[in-house]
Amino acid sequence: MSGDSLHILVFPWLAFGHMLPFLELSKSLAKRGHRITYISTPRNIQRLRQFQPNLSPLIHFLSIPLPSVEHLPETAESTRDVPSEKVQYLKKAFDGLEAPVSAFFKSACADKSSRPDWVIMDFAHHWVPKIAEEYHVPCTFFSVLISPSLVFMGPCSELLGGYRTSVENFTVPPKWVPFPSNVAYRLHEARGFLGVFDRNASGITDIERLASVVNASKFVCSRSCHNLESKWLSLLSKLYEKEVMPIGYLPPSIDKSQSEKSSKAAGELDVMDWLDQQPVESVLYIAFGSEACLSIELIHELALGIEVSKVRFLWAFRKPKGISDDTRILPEGFEERTRDIGIVTAWVPQMKVLAHASVGGFLTHCGWSSIVENFQFGHPLVLLPIFIDQGLNARMLEDKNIAVAIPRDEETGDFSREDVAKVFRIVMEEEKGKEIRHNAKLLKKVFMDLASYENHIDEFVEKLKKFKLDV
Fold first, then answer.
1. Residue among 428, 281, 289, 429 nearest 356 (CA)
2. Beta-carbon neighbour count of residue 107 at 10 Å?
3. For the chain, what is the mean pLDDT?
4. What is the distance of C-alpha 88 from the center of its chain?
5. What is the Cα–Cα distance from 452 to 235, expressed in whole angstroms?
6. What Gene3D superfamilies does the entry give (predicted)?
7. Is pLDDT of 19 > 90?
8. pLDDT band at 254 (very low <50, low <70, confident <90, very high)
9. What is the pLDDT of residue 255?
10. Domain match, 442 and 459 both
């Protein structure tokens, strides 16, 4: 390694929507000759290696077991492994990593050759800055949320107790946004979001965690891009009173070994063969990520809307957590009635599906990782946000006129099969959706501007070098 190479600790929260972008960032840094120590738990690291089997030798995984916590299943190491009501116990277990992480710092900092130069941490890591400060290692917070979502949440003073005291306050843009904006929650979304202000089993709120890491960071970096978020990034820097750097959207690459996996190996339909038989841009791909899920009632309504629409579809369907394998979730006879226009399967190689010529649209829960993957291929979106930042992401996408949201009841979040069918036809077939389809293809150029992404990472690395502390 050259003399100006860095040793960087990369430490994400225990959710794959966080761990995978942190890993993509690690790959970009290792490509520039920097040594990475990526911290997580044994099972998560095992799964990450399966996702990314051909990593740089400069990326070293540090595996630290989670302590046992009452009400948390023994095998649970990520938010994927537990229902939403048990994530609070995962946070409690995560905070139990403080002692072994502190021991690692002590050992690593005893030797100049292994001493870390930086810690890149996530929102949950309120105890990390204190350890890092003890050993004179600077920290930066890497947000997987985009800048409009962070702006909506507000400055640290607001996070720790501000003017928004009712659920209705979160259904309009906040007063610190000086330009026209539609980025705000619907009423049913806002009710779900308010849980981040509640003290949970870990003894601290999610908002307190976020405020703590923002305050302790030398600067903040965001999974954002100047091309789409320039005014938001500038505003966020003013709100945080420190520099906020975009590091690009970190689009994942299609790993050859992963892309060649056939779902037949898991006893599933061969979705790629089926796609090969469909007309160009005729199939709507439907997926809600690894954690977001609808109630059984809304799954039924969505399925019946698909049937009414008669739009070709590929549905990557996961049963809601806690539902036994023998429980019927889809409407009786749905798969038989729709077999001529679509298939339902438990697993698909998502990147390869999105890249397929027959796919012409994507129904998404609005998780930012799925959105980034989609716009590498320029598909218009059908939006059905479910929790956390997803509603805010949806507003931004609607504002760009590249997506259509399924209309929902403000109070309950319910929707009708008729509206599902109507939106499907607009996005996939009707003249009314022509401009949306055109705009989505144009946006592909922004998301695939790899030179811009490389520039973002280069600027980020220069910032790390500039702020490096000499000890």
1. 281
2. 10
3. 93
4. 19
5. 21
6. Glycogen Phosphorylase B
7. yes
8. low
9. 53
10. no
pLDDT band at 325, cuts 50/70/90? low
The partner residues of 221 in beta bridges, in order of sequence, read: 142, 245
CA angle 218, 128, 135 (to 5 degrees): 75
**Which residue, 144, 107, 320, is CA-closest to 224?**
144
Angle between helices 16-31 and 450-467 (to 10 degrees): 80
Residues 230 and 116 occupy one common structural domain: yes
Q: How far apart are CA 462 and CA 94, in angstroms?
A: 31
Burial 392-425 (b: 16+ CB within 10 A, else e): bbbbbbbeeebbbbbebeeeebebbbeebbbbbb
Domain that holds residue 184: 7-251+449-467
Instruction: Examine the pLDDT at 264 and tell me if it is beyond 60.
Output: no
Q: Which residue has the higher pLDDT, 263 or 59?
A: 59
Single-letter code of the amino acid located at 125? H
Number of domains the chain contains:
2
Alpha carbon 38 to chain centroid, angstroms: 18
Residue 63 sits in a domain whose CATH number is 3.40.50.2000
Helix (H) or strand (E) holding 336: helix 334-337
* Position 347 confidence tier, pLDDT thresholds 50, 70, 90: confident
